[in-house]
Amino acid sequence: MHLYEPPVNDFQFIIHKLLKVQNLKLKGYSELSPDFTKPIFEEAGKLAREELAPINISGDREGCTLDNGVVRTPKGFKEAFLKVNSGGWTGIDCDPEFGGQGMPHVISLVIGEMFCSANMALNMYHGLTHGAYSAIYQHGNKEQKSTYLPNLVNCKWTGTMNLTEPHCGTDLGLIKTKAQKSHDGSYQITGQKIFISAGDHDLSENIIHLVLAKIPGSPEGVKGISMFIVPKFLIKKDGSLGERNTLSVSKIEEKMGIHGNSTCVMNYDGAKGFLISEENKGLRAMFTMMNEARLGVGLQGIGQAEAAYQRAAAYAKERLQGKDISKRDGSKNADPIIQHPDIRRTLMDQKVFIEAARALALWCATMLDFAEREGDKESEGLASLLIPVVKGFITDKGFESTINSQQVFGGHGYIEEWGMSQFARDARIAMIYEGTNGIQALDLVGRKLSSDGGKHTVRFLKEIKDFISENKEDDRIAENFITPLNNALKDAEKCLEFFMKEGLNNPNQALAGATDFMHLMGYLALGFMWAQMVKVALDELAQSKKEDPLLNAKVSSGRYFFRRHLPETSLRKERVLNGSKDMMELRVEDF
């Protein structure tokens, strides 16, 4: 059975031919030559292929268990976890001051996709730890940084984020977890948190929980939320581990997927916690991680789609069923199913989505690098605009891709022996956590479009307009790519006009079309990626004057996307312009 083969050549094409990272004037980018990045990607890919992928199916079947208050991870997880750590992969983009390698986020994202494709459940332990690192790095004091960051960078300790409670998810203003200040300056944390990924496990020596709680007397709602570091084991002054904190796991959630990751119900019974930043500034610390975290979740959608697609394509080349209708010589009893147009359609739909989504995610990663390394607020704003699209649209389509991969297998796709259902089950959570995709759509339409006076929206549209203007006379792409891209851009602009005209007087008019607009933006963004990739591929082919399978495939795939997928923007536009009347007029009791 095909497990996973890292798409290193595609990563190299996007990084060096499309984004041209080696030419970007940004700290740490000048060394990113193809000769520098390829060995890194190949080595990470080898680890993903040989160590992580082989225990993905077994980890799903075995799952995590709770044994006398301690969570045990599936067989092989600890050994693989330590191999990732020992290779320095966990701190690839972390500050060298704390043991990281200081590489750009765009490199970390490539590695993250490979690890996620190979074993999403295991990779989450590292991903959540990176989130905790980022929060403390940005908002912790000097002592907190020196105490926690070196051990989080190398994953000797791991991290979590504790937000959700039984009675509240998105509406964090309703949280009940309390933080009572003690005489020594620490806080006693009391309350229950649910859905805590990696809440407890046997992979690391300590677990550093970042917990949102309210200090008595704080303002009502989200303005009264603070963030606290709550270690599983308290840390002594010499850095060694002390007594266990008064927190516990009451159960492991029984989930649809990601069985190899321990999703826990956490109880805090006066546990000792330490304030990050200032009182009532917890949301600020949490939102520091949001762009990074939501980009990471979008990456999970791509990663699961890629792994599922690879297995489906390999199966389609081997599975003999039915005769190729274009051949009438009768020389074979059956042909590989990849010869049949509908199977080819299913695989092409996956391929063109994955490659453009990957390009979009990596483009966003470069923006975050500009924001972090150069303090570039414009890049940060553009990334913030596109992150809801990456998280929402890409995980919607990523899940759809895993279903299509399962469909290629026919009945075998429904049988657990082939492992195809795991991709769908694992991918499903990416549409839900870090803010459901409906919330992403509302965030895009309700906040991000108008952020900073709408200038980031204007910049995104201008990027596309400039590309159209620069290439409208290029006969190679004008008719098949530039004209339809311009039509899709006009669909987006008509929706924006509608939001401005109708949404200000009646917000439901805009919000009713939020998900459709998010998808419209997704198709537009992927179309922008494909148009650029096709142009680059054609330029490369003309320059080399010889055939190149990857470049030829880019041109064919881009043409398929533009003819079969980009017209979706017109449908989404019509839904947006329909407004809210038909949606909201039905009485509640009629549902």
Give the topology, please.
Layout lengths: L7 H11 L15 H19 L3 H7 L2 E3 L2 E3 L4 H10 L18 H14 L1 H20 L2 H12 L3 E6 L15 E4 L5 E11 L8 E9 L10 E7 L1 E3 L5 E4 L2 E6 L10 E14 L5 H7 L1 H29 L22 H34 L2 H32 L11 H9 L8 H12 L6 H17 L6 H26 L3 H5 L2 H31 L4 H16 L3 H10 L3 H4 L7
Parallel strand pairs: 3-6
Antiparallel strand pairs: 1-2, 4-5, 5-11, 6-7, 7-11, 8-9, 10-11
Description:
The protein has 591 residues and is an alpha+beta fold. The protein is 55% helix and 12% strand. The protein has 20 helices and 11 strands. It has helices at 8-18, 34-52, 56-62, 77-86, 105-118, 120-139, 142-153, 282-288, 290-318, 341-374, 377-408, 420-428, 437-448, 455-471, 478-503, 507-511, 514-544, 549-564, 568-577, 581-584; strands at 65-67, 70-72, 157-162, 178-181, 187-197, 206-214, 225-231, 233-235, 241-244, 247-252, 263-276. Strands 3, 4, 5, 6, 7, 10 and 11 form a 7-stranded mixed sheet that branches. The chain has a two-stranded antiparallel ribbon with strand order 1-2. β4 and β5 (187-197) form a beta hairpin. α1 (8-18) runs antiparallel to α2 (34-52), α10 (341-374) packs across α18 (549-564) and α17 runs antiparallel to α19. The radius of gyration is 24 Å and the shape is globular. The mean pLDDT is 96.
